[in-house]
């Protein structure tokens, strides 16, 4: 695809909302009809699966990186238009995995999906730096805390050394009554401000529920902020897209009254992801 479609979501330190940002940006775009893949490239401390109530089979990204499985085998469908590629949590799996294989993984997913979000691990290591150079753009996630901002500066430097490009800054856990200027934080880091996500108790609740915030509390302040950021990132009107899809789905249900799909809520069995990804990749290869 010609436009930027692969984004690495990175932070200088853990606990700033990086995985939450990855999941919710991807889900917001999927709700608008974009085909999305979210990939846990935090090979040492994987946690994306827990954010979306995914209990992967034995096959994960680690198996792909050890050449024991294909990317299709490690892909799980979460809902309409969105799949996840989780990483393993075992130390043995981590020791055997080769981060260099991420190049082929990203290349395949880039051709098969409209958007790919890479949930990058925090800290400085080869598997952390590599995705920063593979992505079309890097989104830096930080809280307003000085320590988090300082660590973000280091991540920006790492991105530059990896040959990547920083797209902008997303500030999380913001407060309306704060005297901190988020625009000034972005200016200090010399990168654009993509958006500020308000502190929202529903965010923690959604994690425990294993449900993306934009689904758990779609009208909440944090969910609204994530949808706005996703819309700006993709250059589309998500609300209008979602409205049209809802109307289209309603028309289809009336025409197909009594028919049943995989799931009435539009969510299909995750195992069906393997066939979907295979078809998407085959179609992309045919078009290239």
TrEMBL record:
Residue intervals of the CobQ/CobB/MinD/ParA nucleotide binding domain: 8-211
Chain intervals for the UniProt region annotation (Disordered): 240-288
Keyword Cell cycle: yes
Signal peptide extent: none
Binding-site positions, ATP: 13-20
Residue ranges, compositional bias (Basic and acidic residues): 265-277
GO CC terms in record: cytoplasmic side of plasma membrane; cytosol
Matches recorded under InterPro entries: CobQ/CobB/MinD/ParA_Nub-bd_dom (IPR002586), MinD_archaea (IPR010224), MinD_FleN (IPR025501), P-loop_NTPase (IPR027417), ParA/MinD_ATPase (IPR050625)
Ranges of compositional bias, category Acidic residues: 249-264
GO molecular function terms attached to this record: ATP binding; ATP hydrolysis activity
Keywords: ATP-binding, Cell cycle, Cell division, Nucleotide-binding
UniProt-listed GO biological process terms: cell division; negative regulation of cell division
PANTHER family: ATPASE INVOLVED IN CHROMOSOME PARTITIONING, PARA_MIND FAMILY (PTHR43384:SF10), SEPTUM SITE-DETERMINING PROTEIN MIND HOMOLOG, CHLOROPLASTIC-RELATED (PTHR43384)
Protein's name according to its UniProt entry: Cell division ATPase MinD
Taxonomic source organism: Halobiforma nitratireducens JCM 10879
The organism's taxonomic lineage, starting at the top: Archaea, Methanobacteriati, Methanobacteriota, Stenosarchaea group, Halobacteria
């Amino acid at each position: 695809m010609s436009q930027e479609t692969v984004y690495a979501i990175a932070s200088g330190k853990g606990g700033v909302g990086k995985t939450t940002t990855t999941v919710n940006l991807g889900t917001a775009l999927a709700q608008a009809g974009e085909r999305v893949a979210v990939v846990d490239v935090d090979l040492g401390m994987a946690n994306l699966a827990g954010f979306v109530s995914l209990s992967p089979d034995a096959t994960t990204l680690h198996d792909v990186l050890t050449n024991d499985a294909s990317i299709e085998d490690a892909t799980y469908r979460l809902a309409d238009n969105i799949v996840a590629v989780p990483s393993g949590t075992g130390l043995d799996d981590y020791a055997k995995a080769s981060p260099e294989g991420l190049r082929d993984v990203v290349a395949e997913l880039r051709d098969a999906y409209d958007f790919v979000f890479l949930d990058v691990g925090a800290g400085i290591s080869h598997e952390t730096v590599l995705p920063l150079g593979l992505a079309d753009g890097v989104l830096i996630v930080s809280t307003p805390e000085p320590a988090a901002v300082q660590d973000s500066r280091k991540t920006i430097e790492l991105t530059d050394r990896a040959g990547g490009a920083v797209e902008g800054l997303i500030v999380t856990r913001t407060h309306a009554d704060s005297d901190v200027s988020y625009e000034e934080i972005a200016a200090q880091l010399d990168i654009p401000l993509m958006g500020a996500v308000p502190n929202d108790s529903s965010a923690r609740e959604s994690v425990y529920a294993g449900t993306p915030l934009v689904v758990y509390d779609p009208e909440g302040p944090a969910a609204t902020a994530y949808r706005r950021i996703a819309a700006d990132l993709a250059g589309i009107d998500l609300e209008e897209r979602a409205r049209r899809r809802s109307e289209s789905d309603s028309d289809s249900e009336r025409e197909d009254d009594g028919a049943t799909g995989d799931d009435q809520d539009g969510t299909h069995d995750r195992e069906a992801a393997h066939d979907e990804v295979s078809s998407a990749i085959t179609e992309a290869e045919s078009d290239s």
